[in-house]
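Entry 12.
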Amino acid sequence: MKKLLVVILGLMIAASAPADARTVKVVASFTVLADMAKQIGGVHVEVHSLVGPNGDPHVYEPTPADGQTLAGADIVLVSGLGLEGWMDRLIRASGTRAPVVVASQGIVTRHMVDDGKEITDPHAWNSAANGVIYARNITDALASADPADAADIRANGARYVKQLQELDAWVRSEVKTMPLSKRKIITSHDAFGYMGAAYNIRFLAPEGFSTESEPSARDVAALIDQIRKEKIKVVYIENSNDPRLVQQLASATGARIGGKLYPEALSEPDGPAPTYTRMFRYNVETLLHGMQGH
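Predicted 3D structure (tokens):
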């Protein structure tokens, strides 16, 4: 009798569930987008990131398995703004029919000169206020893909947006405690322009917006002179690219390595930056610690 009741109860639950409820298969180009989709989609999504933890989204080389993963996707998330130069070819080769969602849609973009050409800075998520725009775009995409669970997805999205807004307010408050004269940062490549503009921090980098850029000997020499002239005491390496150039700058100027930053790739789950919000907070705390030591 007890077994019969369990069976009947199970049938009743199944019958009451919406017929079109499903797990949405999301394929994201890199870890920041993948984490946002997980936070917003919750139990309603299955998320795969093509570029893994500590990976470089500028120079990633897709595999045949990536094409198969895309072919089975319900949604493809990209950041856009020229970040994933390899993504369009992969999407075409995979034959996927999944909608491609550009999470940066609506961002007020920055422009910069790289190798004599004006380009769009693709690292928009390094402003938490821009992270809110990403989150809202992803929320809309997931809710559209899964109407049966849309209310839950939108509730998750609203909670996540609130977290990002609180994070943005915290960063602004913390940075204000630091004198402008100390807000000078040297990093591997120019990935923190949006953070600099949002929070009034000055970032300098030997490489351009992409890790594919190779700085000239003249550029490096000029940056060494600037570091000495402005008495910048701390430089930072990044998790997703070669640290040797920054180490060269430190050796030539006497500056110390202030730590490792995570500008465009999350850490492994047991690392210091396993989610977007923890990455953002970790980067800011690391930068503030370095500024205090100037």
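Annotation: The chain is about 45% helix and 15% strand. The chain has a mean pLDDT of 87.
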